[in-house]
Every structure is written in structure tokens, then in C-alpha cells.
Specification:
By secondary structure, this protein is α+β, with helices and mostly antiparallel strands. The protein folds into 3 domains: 58 residues, no CATH class; 94 residues, no CATH class; 32 residues, no CATH class. It contains 6 helices and 7 strands. Strand 3 and strand 4 form a beta hairpin.
Length: 202
């Protein structure tokens, strides 16, 4: 009989036990990992393939790493490449250009992409929603429980925001008694193509 080796009841409690927080609320440790390894289909596929790596994941960080690797590999047959951070995903309709997902307006919560189902035009979408679409295009991604899917999208959205904020230069607005200075293009660091400065944009 195939089963997950928790060693004993104490081993299970150590990894997946209930913890009480300072406000009196209780939650289960590593509940996303537990939801993943409880899938009946996971055990069946492991027994048939002889590959037990997916049921021997021991931590949330390992779960994230394995899931991202499998999603990237599963999508390799799809036509277009989507480069985000250091990941190379594939899609049947989405693609990234030279901006590699970074939005021109500096929005850290969204990804820039080309949609080949809509004339190859440029769009942007919330990072978590965009990532969910990429996952569900892959055969492996379609097997993931909703709890794992939601967690992966939240993790990616947070990682994407950190990445974009560290990539774009910091722009600061300094205002003193001479308020007119903020409209002076000669005092700006960079060109923002804004109608609020004296560069002839109307």
C-alpha cells in the first residue's frame, strides 16, 4: 500500500499540526502542502509511474520550487514564450516582449504581455490573474487543487511586485514654496511624456 511517510503521529503534528496564534485564532501548519499531497490521483500516478518525488515534498518552499519547475516543463509544447523574472513559461496565446512583463507605467502589480488572440496587441493584467492563466494552460497546472493554485498565484504576485519595485528607478516628488518647479521639464530626472510639464504635450 502506498502512503505518505509521516514517521508517526508526532511527525504529522510537527509538520501539519494545529497552531494557536496570539489572537486566539487557530490554523493548520503547511495546509496548502497537506491539500496537495492528499490528492488521491497523486498517489495513483506515483504508483503507475514509479516517480514518488511529488508525494515526498517536505516544505512549502520545496512545494513552490517543484510546482514552478513542473509548470514550466509542462508548458514547453505551447507556442509562445513568457519570460517573467527568471522563469520561462509558455502559452498558446500570451507572449512577453523586450520589457519581459514590466509595465511601461511602472505598475508593480501588473504584467505587460502580447495577446496573440487579439491581434498581438499589448495589454496588462494583474500579476496573479495573469499567472493563473499561464498555469491553467498547462496539463500539469490543470491537475492542481484550487488551494494550491490560489497560493501559487499569491506567491507569484508578491514576488513580482518585489521584483518590479527593485527594477524601476525610484522617482521622488519634492515640493517646497516654489511649487512651479514640478512643472519645469529642466528639473525632472527623465522624460515622462506628461501634459503637466512644459514640453508641448496638450
Amino acid at each position: 500500500m502506498l502512503y505518505y511517510n509521516f514517521l508517526n503521529a508526532e511527525g504529522f503534528k510537527e509538520r501539519f499540526g494545529i497552531i494557536e496564534h496570539g489572537n486566539g485564532e487557530k490554523s493548520r501548519k503547511n495546509k496548502v502542502l497537506l491539500a496537495y499531497i492528499k490528492q488521491p490521483s497523486l498517489f495513483k500516478e506515483a504508483a503507475e509511474s514509479g516517480d514518488y518525488s511529488l508525494i515526498n515534498i517536505a516544505s512549502m518552499s520545496e512545494l513552490k520550487q517543484v510546482m514552478l519547475e513542473r509548470i514550466q516543463k509542462s508548458g514547453e509544447g505551447l507556442q509562445y514564450e513568457v519570460n517573467l523574472i527568471n522563469y520561462a513559461f509558455h502559452s498558446s496565446k500570451f507572449e512577453t516582449d523586450d520589457y519581459k512583463g514590466l509595465c511601461e507605467d511602472g505598475d508593480p502589480r501588473a504584467c505587460r504581455y502580447l495577446n496573440h488572440n487579439n491581434g498581438g496587441n499589448v495589454f496588462k493584467m494583474k500579476a496573479g490573474k495573469f499567472f493563473r492563466g499561464l498555469i491553467l494552460e498547462t496539463e500539469f497546472g490543470q491537475t492542481l487543487p484550487e488551494q494550491v493554485l490560489v497560493w501559487l498565484c499569491e506567491e507569484f504576485a508578491a514576488e513580482w511586485q518585489t521584483f518590479t519595485l527593485s527594477t524601476f528607478p525610484e522617482n521622488q516628488l519634492f515640493v517646497n514654496d516654489n511649487f512651479g518647479d514640478i512643472y519645469d521639464s529642466g528639473r525632472l530626472q527623465g522624460c515622462f511624456h506628461s501634459c503637466m510639464v512644459d514640453q508641448g504635450y496638450h
